Amino acid sequence: MKKIIAIFAMTLILSPMLTAMGGKAEAAYYHTKAISVAKANLGVPYRWGGISPRGFDCSGLVKYSYGKAGKVLPRTAADMFYTKGYRVSSLKAGDLMFFAPNKASRPTHVAIYIGNGKMIQAASSKGVSISYTSNSYWKPRYIGAKRI
């Protein structure tokens, strides 16, 4: 009887830790998968409202990439910013980066941080492409990042 109680107690103690560790592994998987999907679409042309490999807009690429990784995201950059994930200040691969015309406005652009100071995005000028986060166009428009 003491053994059964001991096993039950250990299960109660260890269960939250194992769940938390499994959650981190799952997060690492879907972040990596979303980045891989986005990279597989490098060169796809920009299409306003586009949500498929025939053409993407920024939020379409992010929604599509995360969807293929098993995570459902809203359709627009603003909805992603206001309803999903939690804000982070130190970026990790897979974090969503948000941009706005000015610091006080709603986000109008979203990209996926891929590490080493780079992000993958669907931009109207280049389609699906990789840019540096320090890019002179995007850097002043950056308003924050969220981890999904």
Judged by helices, strands and strand pairing, the structural class is alpha+beta
Overall pLDDT level:
87
Which CATH architecture is right?
Alpha-Beta Complex
Poorly predicted regions are 4-22
Pfam family, one: NLPC_P60
Protein name: C40 family peptidase
Signal peptide: 1-20
Organism: Neobacillus paridis
Label this structure with key terms.
endopeptidase fold (from Nostoc punctiforme); 24% strand; globular; 148 residues; alpha+beta; 3 helices; two-stranded antiparallel sheet; six-stranded antiparallel sheet
Q: Care to describe what's here?
A:
Residues 28-148 form the NlpC/P60 domain. Residues 1-20 form the signal peptide. With 148 residues, the chain is α+β, with helices and mostly antiparallel strands. It has a single domain (2-147), classed as Alpha-Beta Complex (endopeptidase fold (from Nostoc punctiforme)), CATH 3.90.1720.10. The chain has helices at 2-40, 58-68, 77-83, and strands spanning 51-52, 55-56, 86-88, 96-99, 109-115, 118-123, 127-132, 142-147. The strands form two sheets. The protein has a six-stranded antiparallel β-sheet. A two-stranded antiparallel ribbon has the order 1-2. Strand 6 and strand 7 (127-132) form a beta hairpin. Helix 1 packs across helix 2. The longest helix is centred in the N-terminal third of the chain and has 39 residues, at 2-40. The chain is globular, with a radius of gyration of 19 Å. The model is unreliable at 4-22 (pLDDT under 50).
